[in-house]
Amino acid sequence: MSGRNTERGGGRGGGRGGDRGGRGGSRGSDRGGRGGGGGGGRGSDRGGRGGGRGSDRGGRGGARGGRGGRGGDAFVVKPVYNYVAEFADEVSSENSLAAIKKLPAPAKTSGLPIALRPSYGALGTPTNVGTNFVQYKVTNLIFYAYHVTFPEFLEDKKKVRAELLEMLIDKNPFLPSKKVISHDNSAIIYSTVPIPIENTKVKKVPFVFSEEELKGVIPKARPGEKTTAGSLTVTVELVQELNMDDLQKSTSLLGPDNFDMQPYISALNVSLGYKISKTPNVFNVGNSKFFFVEHPESCQPFQRGLYLANGYFASIRPTFNNIVINVNSAAAAFIKSHTKSGKQMNVADLMEDYFGTENLSTLDNTQVLRHKSFFKGIKITRDYLGHKSKPKNLHEIDIKVTAANHKFEVDGKMTTVAAYFKSKYNITIKYPNLPLIHLGGTNYVPMEACSVVPGQQYKGDITDVKGMLDFTTHRPPALAGLVQKEGLKVMAKGDAEHRIGNKLMVVPSRVLDPVTVEYANGSVSYNPKPYDGKSENSKGSWNLNNRKFYRPVASVIKLNVVVLEEERFPLREQEKDLVNRAVKTFISESGKYGVKYAPAFSLNKITITNPYALEKKLEEVARSVNKPNNFILWILPQADKGIFSSIKKVCDVRVGVLNQCTIFNKFTRERYDKFDLGMYALMGMKSCIKLGGVNHVMSKEHSSILMKNNLPALLLGADVSHPTGAGANGSAPSVAAVVGSIDGFYNSFPGSLSYQEGKVEIIGEMEKMCVERIMEYHAKVGKLPQEVLFYRDGVSEPQFEILLKEEVPAVKAAFSTIKRKMNLPTYNPKLTFVVIVKRHNTRFYPLNKNAKTSSGKEIAVQAKENIIPGSIVDKGITSVKYYDFYLQSQMALQGTAVPGHYYVLYDENKFKPDEIQKVTYGLCNIFARAVNSVRVVPPAYYADLLCERGNCYMNGAQASRGETQMQAAKKMVGAGIHPSVKKAMVYI
Predict the structure, then answer these.
(1) pTM higher than 0.70 for the full model?
(2) pLDDT (tens digit per residue) in 61-102
(3) Residue 152 needs a FRET pair 20 to 30 A away by CA distance; which of 799, 823, 865, 984 works?
(4) φ/ψ of residue 206, rounded to 5
């Protein structure tokens, strides 16, 4: 098991990401725990899921055996693909430097200018890698963009507008050119031929939809609209002629300085996506993902009520001297809408599938009530109306009303819903005693009368994580073949067929030398060798055998162990003895690495009751042991977000005592009469950091890049976490975090938290939090930093401009605040601001097993069918002119690894590409709680973890009358992390 799972009280592991979180420990495992699954996702050092409460595997296990879940979900069979990908013969390695140097100085804007690429990196062993990009020829292609203006009341009704656009292109003069027309589902129609809509009298040409055409599409025209009764008028105007030859020139930096590529790229993406979405059985999710829904070859039954569908991501983007398409495999869970025989499901059919029964009359309303959240929000149509009806959301399943007992007035007489449907529509209700569906207002309808709309992506919790991973993770050879043979086939239709390349692009790559990680009694480093199928798998991973933490915890710590027991499963004597033995072993093992606990420890237990009573008990225990050099080890019965959040809220915010969580059946697990010493080692890493120690550091070869005049650079990391689930639709706040280094070891990053308006990405209190981090650095180092390297997580490319306009100036404003605060004549350290984009669809495929270093030595450049950790790509598919690179820093355990995509947005330190790439990779090897390199550079990773912890602190906050959710959250969190522990990495 890996460290993170222990601390969080379980959780699901790490998505698809490949950070290992290896076992460490004295048993000598090279691999370590599962960590986070395959190559995609964030990459986590967490370890396995832990058998959580709702798990189909059961609850505590251990001495009693688990409780089990509903069970019965479909078994997912991992798809097997035998395609062999074809890669381009030529290597795409266009060099943009000469063109960049000819560019004029950027025009002054309200924001800071984005950094341009200064050069390319040169360090490392050169090789070539395949990509999931293909070239797209756009020469001699023109798009005519027409803007459609709708009545004001349709501004927030995107789906209605999309349907009207479809109806519009079925009218003259659009209809004859329909094959070359596409639209963005909102307001823009694109055509590759001009549409003859010119009107000498008006620029905006009106088109009228009759009342008959609008039936089932939108409500009748509202008062005040300038239309005839029941009809609706839109206007169409030619707004832009987009000659793609101009776009092609701009990718070579030959066009006008102020040329805006975005309208051109948007037209290409809309056209491509629109054509794909018109393929039978294909549904698009967002603008770039397309799924084969209800297509037997591409779907599998999944959790009850769901199936898994295969699909593809496709997006067009510019690179230097090229337009390319990024193509990737995608998969998602969808709500079932058809039976095995192909019949469209109604809600009753879906409920039968969900509960695994062929007779819903055997269900009681309590069961329906317990699981109604699955059905809430599902889109349905009412086919019994006899005409096309607009889909409606299932508002509620009301267990108080049934088709048999709910009455309403019809023609002056009271009748039941069941009787009405029989007399009006000749529909006999099979389950008259089941709850009715509430569609809003006074609209109650039987489940059997509502058909489930196909193509609805499921956004709830996935319980069968293994099944999802089995379906979605593919090793690079399989993924490359799938993308090239199937993905391109979907896109290459019509005119696009001769424009889209049929082979995957090849780009140059470099493999950086291994990072040496230092401990108190020695160092560890991978020794590059030729590929042998085994030794290369250890690059970026090691164990803690015979290692001592670089700087052990200075004091002897008193350990206070608290076991949380459930009322139904009180702690038995043999379990108490088991805990005693496990704790003694944990103390002994921790001491070997550098965390000295006193031999005598306290052991208490708390019985879990209701949440309020539990928090009170937790606080009583925490306060009773809140003394210097005391540490609490909480042992939870199973993974439980609510209990974990309560513990962290009490210890981190209210009381101020350092602590750690683990799971009973993991902490006490024995194999061959031995406890899991590897897990204890990783728990010791987390304890060491929290208690002020240092686990491991980079060698001077890497850390010297961050030293200037014997003063370490300050590393900052920032992220924003947005509300999910029920909070995503309400006024729940977002959590922003900034973490900062406190010395040149770069192992400890205390942080600052703030709460801001939900779904706002720009950090509002950036200046304040940066001031706190700089002052903490000053308190530890004794001087102010002269160089600042900032890693920002959680933003995408369209947001870069606003970062340069708001966040980067806010960081610089913090320097001015420090100057005033400390009464200095000047203080203006050099700032480099780097963004890591994690959620992207770029993948790399190794083409060679070995490559030769500059000295002629042959070394492995692939591992587990992936490119090897330390691989850099900064040519071929990177930005036209901006300073970006891809770094694959982690080993993928399954699937295809996802590299980090780094953009240097602002660079006063003038880091050379080799320097920023090398130090970023070095940092990825010293993540504080793992013995492996991680995917996300640690300062950004830590900020993400602190945001998660910030969500824990406000868990359960309920707004009272007249109070916003933000106010409720801030009231619960109070002043934030307690002063007693604010300087520690409480979130690790």
Answers:
(1) yes
(2) 333 333 333 444 677 888 888 899 999 999 999 999 999 999
(3) 799
(4) -80, 145
